[in-house]
Write a structure and sequence with these properties.
mainly beta; seven-stranded antiparallel sheet; 56% strand
């Protein structure tokens, strides 16, 4: 399943140093319409060097080939250049293995990227000559790859994995061991279905939402409802709440109404957003969205 379309959402927040900013981004990738039988919801949430990737409702009716979600497919400088699987170096070449993750699987590729795959996934790994998913000689070369295997003609399949950028073996090991226990886990998936993907990152205290279908289907965090397919990030602060919202790519510019749990007021008025109601311990906010352009607002408790 190829990934072509994308949209980005960014929250910028100043650190203690006024000259230093941190960026948090969320990105939704959708399956293109190159094959009508292929469908599914995919999302990526960016928190510092952590990228949390979710998929739901992956299905198609192809009965000749497996459906896979590619984790990486990297060229090798030499055949012995290692990838690390569960802490062990794989320097051998010309192999393909299928691994089932009972608790979790850790992988470090040859490009300083680490992967955490929780239990319940079938993962294919290998090193070989020529792209194993192509018969074209144009793509020939020595490769290392890893993918999540959804099987033949999958129905309602999904996945979860995290990728760490610019890391090493000790970094991905430490990340995986923290994820074993709920109290030390660096992120939590709050919801992942055909309606919405929700992830909370504990280190940044940011919750990201990828909304695919609308209508009272969100039941986690501060967001209660939204009337359009959007991407949202919320960050809890002592003095209030920061919200960044944008339409998913491909959705025409329009007004969006977001309903939040609790009574909130605007810290600063703006031309492209306003509170339209405060009642029964919930707040409705209207956003005048332009395609792909995020709107960030600051809210205070009333």
């Amino acid at each position: 399943m190829k990934l072509e379309k994308d949209s980005y959402l960014v929250i910028n927040e100043a650190n203690n140093s006024a000259s230093e900013n941190r960026r948090y981004a969320m990105c939704i990738y959708e399956d293109p319409n190159y094959e009508s039988s292929c469908s599914g919801n995919k999302s990526k949430f960016f928190f510092d060097n952590r990228i949390i990737c979710l998929g739901s409702n992956i299905e198609n009716d192809r009965n000749k080939y497996k459906t896979e979600t590619m984790l990486f497919q990297n060229s090798l400088k030499t055949k012995s250049e290692p990838i690390w699987v569960s802490g062990s170096a794989r320097e051998d070449f010309d192999f393909k293995e299928s691994l089932y993750t009972k608790s979790f699987l850790s992988i470090l590729d040859n490009k300083e990227k680490g992967y955490y795959i929780p239990g319940g996934h079938r993962v294919s790994i290998g090193k070989c000559n020529k792209d194993p998913r192509s018969n074209s000689e144009i793509t020939s070369g020595d490769y290392a790859f890893a993918s999540i295997d959804h099987g033949i003609s999958p129905k309602y399949e999904g996945y979860e994995y995290a990728m760490l950028t610019k890391t090493n073996l000790e970094g991905i090991k430490a990340f995986c061991h923290k994820m074993i226990f709920e109290e030390t886990a660096l992120y939590t998936v709050l919801q992942c279905n055909k309606y919405v993907h929700i992830v909370k990152d504990k280190e940044t205290n940011i919750t990201g939402y990828a909304v695919f279908n609308c209508g009272n289907l969100i039941d986690k965090g501060f967001v209660k409802d939204v009337d359009s397919p959007v991407m949202i990030m919320t960050k809890e602060k002592e003095e209030g709440l920061t919200i960044s919202l944008t339409l998913r790519k491909g959705i025409s510019s329009k007004g969006v109404t977001l309903t939040l749990d609790g009574c909130w007021g605007l810290k600063t008025a703006g031309k492209n957003y306003k509170i339209i109601s405060n009642k029964k311990n919930e707040t409705a906010i209207w956003f005048n969205c332009q395609q792909g352009e995020p709107i960030e607002i600051e809210l205070t408790t009333k």
